[in-house]
Every structure is written in structure tokens, then in C-alpha cells.
Amino acid sequence: MFALITAGLAASSLRMTDILATQEHLWFVVTMPVAFVVFVASAAAFAFWGPFAAPAGPDIAGGVTSELSGVDRLLVEAGRAVFLGASAAMAAALFLGGDSGPWLPGPLWHLLKTLAVVAALIWVGRRMPVLRPDRTVEVGWMVLVPLTLLQALVVAVLVLNGFYA
């Protein structure tokens, strides 16, 4: 939520059209890299994906998916994939300017940015070890929450100075 609020703070609105309009000249990822990373990492953690896959990991007990097979397992895995895709699309809109870009039509730009975020998630997710849930929570509370609050403070100062106007 802090990542979402930071983007809304810069746009002075939580409406997506206003957030996209504010990014017409400079994407939010430039001034809000921490919020972007936290948003994407939170989406991956919510889907138990990549380094956050411990609850659904292939351990001896099978995790949260141990009782699933067949169509049920397919639906859960498809839901996780759809959630990651939707989160990547939202990240592209919130932090990468959505459909803004030269030469190509707007929807194609948004699709390309979404695919780039998904590709980055896959690339990073395959190279990081799976984190234990207690370590994930510890990093979240001790590192990510203070960093996102600091990011929101920096954006608030930029808003007060008229940077996004």
C-alpha cells in the first residue's frame, strides 16, 4: 500500500488516469525506485512465487498445494500466473508510464512494458534462493517498510517543491 500511495501522492490523486497523466514527461520509476521494487516484490510474495515460494515449495510435505492435483492444481497455478501478469501490468501503469512511448500505439507500449516486468520477475526469481517465511517477514518489517516510508517522504518533498506539476 505504501508503494501505491507514493504514486498517488506524486499525482495528487489515486485515479489511474491522473497517475498516467503525471508520468507524461518522467516515469515514476525514476523518482520512486524503492516503491517500484517493493510493489513488484510484494506481488511476487503474494503469489508465493520466485524467492517467496516457500509456502508452495516442493518440500517433503508439499506446502499449501499438497492436497491439490488435476484441475484444482491447474487452476491454482493459473491463478498465480494471472496474478503476476496483472501485477506486472499495474506496475507498468503505476511506475513505467503505462501506454506512453514514441512511435508505437499506446496499448502496445503498455503490453511491452508489462512483458518487460514479467521477464524481469522471471529472471530475478530464477536466480534468487527461496527465502524462509520468517526471513521474508523480517526483511519486510525491518528494511522494506522503513524504505518505503522514506521514499514517500522524498516524494512528498518533491511534490511540495512542484517537481511533478
From TrEMBL:
GO molecular function, one term: NADH dehydrogenase (quinone) (non-electrogenic) activity
Xref: InterPro entries: NADH_UbQ_OxRdtase_su1/FPO
Signal peptide feature range: none
Key words, A-Z: Membrane, NAD, Oxidoreductase, Transmembrane, Transmembrane helix
Class of this enzyme: oxidoreductase
Protein name: NADH-quinone oxidoreductase subunit H
Pfam family, one: NADHdh
UniProt main location, coarse: membrane
Membrane topology recorded in Swiss-Prot or TrEMBL: Multi-pass membrane protein
Localisation: Cell membrane; Membrane
Family under the similarity heading: Belongs to the complex I subunit 1 family.
EC number in record: 1.6.5.9
Membrane-spanning residues: 25-53, 108-125, 137-164
